[in-house]
Amino acid sequence: PGPDPAMTSLLRTALSLAVHESPPTIVDQCLNNVLVGGFDAIVLHVNVNAPLDTELLMRLVDGVPALRGVVRLNPTRLPTDWVAPGLLHRAHIANFRWLKTQCAFDVFATDASNTLLVRPGLKEHLGANTMGVDGIPACGWQSMWEANLRRDPLFEMVGEACRRNQIEGMFMRAELFEQAAGWIEGYEQRYEAAIAEGREPEKVPREEYLFSTALAQLGHEPRGTAYMMMRQGSALGWTSYVADQPPVWHNALAVGQGFSWEPLEIERSLAAGRLLPLFWDVLADHVPPIPDFAAYKAGKFGIKRVHRPVDDPIRRLVGDHYGYRQWTLEANALAG
Question: At what angle do helices 174-196 and 210-217 cross, to 10 degrees?
Fold first, then answer.
């Protein structure tokens, strides 16, 4: 028999959000994660380079009863610019460490601010699974970052054993995150030593490699999947899965890039209570093919990428469906 849903839902879940956009958008993001995802605590990290009024942000947050006392702002602000220097992992680790001084939690998840939960049931899913960490091999299948990764201290440490994970919707038990963060500190020492020697930092999204690699090195084989489903044509292409048909590879250079979610897909999904995309697509970053695609689909509860403005039609659809849209609009009006 599987885990008792009544027991798994009692686990305290915490979410780390890396943000940098307008306060009303962050309020909308938090409402989605609290009222759809059931998170007991959210910790925000604001990019140090973002011109964001954090006092206004927390006034808006505290003005929403559902968020008051649930959403906290980490006073530490680090650079989280993507790729170069590629240090977003530091923000999530800083959030984890700071939140531990504020409240107790059992499960820790990480996400970005351009996602939305669409399907209910995430809290039970987090409680029933020890982790949701994509742990595919990082080398040997034409990853767009592989050449840079091979020049990074991480490759010097573990070589071909490097793994690749999706950071949006990644989750694990708090004790596992603590262990992974400790292993990553060893990497940080190697990284800082290399920089001190005059090496230029490689353009690598390190948060997409460090956590799964750390878990594997510690003997905790990554398993499951991040609960956010990405929709974006990459420079290399992507793989589509339609019903039970064989996977189909698409060349992004021939078809085009920047695919986004259609409101029709979200309307269908909300009505059904599960994700019903027009097609299931998996980025080239998820090659080799997923061994258990049914389990992969069962582990997806939300979507990425969602446009950040609060008047985005998908944000409106989801907010209206789950009954929190009015709080987003009130925050937007108060922000001017």
Answer: 110
